[in-house]
Design a protein that fits this description.
Radius of gyration: 19 Å
Distance between the termini: 52 Å
Strand order of the largest sheet: 3-2-1-4-6-5-7
Structural class: alpha/beta
Number of strands: 7
Helix content: 40-55%
Length: 270
Amino acid sequence: MDDVRQIINRRKVCVVVPTYNNGTTVVDVLRRIAAVTPHIVVVIDGATDDTRRRIARWQEEEPIPATTFHLVDYPDNHGKGYALLMGFKCAILKGYEYALTIDSDGQHFPEDIPLFINALEQHPEALIVGARNLRERNMPGGSTFANRFSNFWFAVQTGVRLPDTQTGYRLYPLRRLSGVHLVTSRYEAELELLVFAAWAGVELLPVPVRVYYPPRNQRVSHFRPFADFARISLLNTLFCLVAVFYGWPTALYRKLKASCKPSSSPSTAG
């Protein structure tokens, strides 16, 4: 773990935790993150439960240095996409170069953070995407279908195949997000970030991660199956149109440019 902490410090990595009404789980998630790294940015996206009180009590009981623990809090709920952008903005202002995003509902295992950090060492320019086992016990059937649906259209729009395009467990190279303006502020924003990254030529690297889904009667989810799926479908339609006029031509130009680069091998002329 010491090696992981050293890489986190050297690479200037923080963990961004967007949260909305996950007061019953967020402190456990933060405690487990803190066991790996104290570099944490929490974004309270207009919570109406006791999230703030629970986090404040945790900070009193297990204080993390103010130089590494940062709280972004605003009164109105704007959606996960907006919360992520606020977290990224805070991270950049604090001097971080990478942001590892993790959900606050307990679905992700903070203990898997070293998997991302080790991948980062080998691929420092990549956007590293956690790939869940979609056959995991208690995995909601709707989520499995939605993810496969999203994976298919993502491959059509970008030419890149990923096993999990809807996971929120990712490590972003912040400088590659410069100038990104999202079409939506909610769940679909994470799909937008992947599509824009692929069109920009950013390497997308999947790493297998664990996932926990509690029994149905214990879940706290803000996903609205019909409304959110409808928005994702509209967004995919838009991306397909943009892909025809921008995404595919850009990818083709990039490939042609790469193939025209002169060889870097040394001359063998006598």
